[in-house]
Specification:
- It is a single chain.
- This protein has 374 residues and is of the alpha/beta class.
- The chain has 4 domains: 7-67, no CATH class; 81-189 and 254-301, Rossmann fold (3-Layer(aba) Sandwich); 194-251, no CATH class; 304-373, Ubiquitin-like (UB roll).
- The protein is built from 11 helices and 16 strands.
- Helix 3 (43-67) packs parallel to helix 7 (216-225) and helix 7 packs parallel to helix 8.
């Protein structure tokens, strides 16, 4: 053990040393990294931990490849798709029945949902497909229900974690997030800004290596563990070896997430306050009387906007196109023009004056009316 190691690091290291499964070892090493000594005397230990983490993550990836992803009959996407995921009896089916047109009936017993169930939410014309997947339980990833649920979640555009506010919300969120992380699904986390271009020969070339934290040898070992023996690697931001493992690991999935606190009508004030104190995520409270408000809040929390198209000298379409916040005129054109490009457009709403002519890189906003011009 290195000099000046914190008690938190020592406890994580003990967890790693006594762990029996690959998942337990990965979780312990990830916790150890948070409290890892930074002084020069611990350089070899840091290199070992990053190297060992890469080996274990690669081993986990091979396990997933061997067991497969479950059924390939996923719910076909109908626009933007968000998955409802939670613990048993968190009320996912009840939410789906209230927020969408899905013909489902809530039950009072756990694990009633055995396969993905879709429904369409309408938020003032903006359509979002919600899909309920089976609830999480121990051994989820090794069951048929769990494999189908994970495959559906990986293919989705966002995750909605449903929390039962009559129970401890922090414990529920922690359990769900840690499980998804063990499956290489990361919520509200940006993918590392690293580009890896494989080559047939020539060894390794690192561009922007001033952004690398730690020894270059550690990065080379990580690449080799993932079967990459020649590549040009470009770093575009500060990158740790743990970040780099995520960049190399092709099974890593990064999804936006929203929390919905269900059963808020019956919850203790303490549970509601603990739920609202969870950091770095949008949180919504669901009560029986605020269904329409929750739809609108959820639409915005998912980072979506409604844009209306119109032909020249005709009124706007009554049905909006749902786009991600930050989308531009060219993104709208790609959705509605079927491969054709719009050189410019007229915009009503967010523009400086009604009908302003803008270029393809103009950023659109919720409620804009757009007339595309080829």
């Amino acid at each position: 053990m290195p000099v000046n190691a914190s008690p938190e690091f020592e406890r994580a290291w003990e967890r790693y040393s006594s762990a029996r499964t690959v998942k337990e070892k990965v979780a312990a090493l990830q916790e150890a990294i948070k409290h890892m000594p930074k002084h020069k005397g611990a350089e070899k230990l840091r290199a070992f931990i990053y190297r060992r983490l890469a080996e274990l993550k690669r081993e986990l990836q091979r396990e997933k490849e061997r067991r497969g992803g479950g059924s390939t009959q996923l719910i076909p996407k109908d626009g933007f798709q968000a998955v409802l995921f939670g613990l048993p009896n968190s009320g996912k089916t009840y939410l789906l029945s209230k927020l969408t047109n899905a013909p489902v009936r809530p039950t009072d017993y756990p694990l009633a949902t055995t396969e993905p169930t879709p429904g369409m939410m309408d938020a003032k014309g903006g359509k979002v497909q919600l899909v309920e997947i089976p609830s999480y339980f121990e051994g989820y990833e090794d069951s048929k229900m769990g494999r189908i649920g994970l495959a559906t979640l990986r293919a989705a555009d966002a995750v909605i974690l449903v929390v039962d506010l009559t129970e401890d919300p922090v414990r529920q969120v922690r359990e769900l997030v840690e499980f998804l992380r063990s499956e290489d699904i990361y919520l509200n986390k940006k993918p590392p800004n690293v580009r890896i271009e494989r080559k047939y020969s020539g060894g390794f070339e690192f561009i922007g290596d001033t952004f690398m934290e730690g020894d270059k040898k550690t990065y080379i070992e990580i690449l080799q563990m993932y079967g990459i023996h020649s590549a040009t690697v470009t770093f575009l931001e500060h990158t740790t070896p743990e970040d780099f493992i995520l960049a190399v690991n092709e099974s890593a999935r990064f999804l936006p997430a929203v929390l919905i606190g269900n059963k808020a009508d019956y919850a203790d004030v303490e549970h509601v306050e603990r739920f609202l104190s969870i950091p770095n995520v949008d949180k919504l409270l669901f009560r029986n009387g605020n269904v329409e408000a929750v739809k609108e809040e959820l639409f915005r929390a998912l980072g979506l906007i409604r844009v209306y198209t119109k032909p020249p000298r005709e009124p706007p379409s009554p049905e909006p196109v749902v786009l991600k916040r930050g989308s531009k005129v060219k993104d709208l054109a790609a959705r509605v023009l079927h491969g054709k490009e719009a050189k410019q457009a007229r915009v009503w709403g967010s523009s400086r004056f009604p009908g302003q002519i803008v270029g393809p890189d103009y950023e659109l906003h919720d409620g804009d009316v757009v007339e595309l011009r080829l």
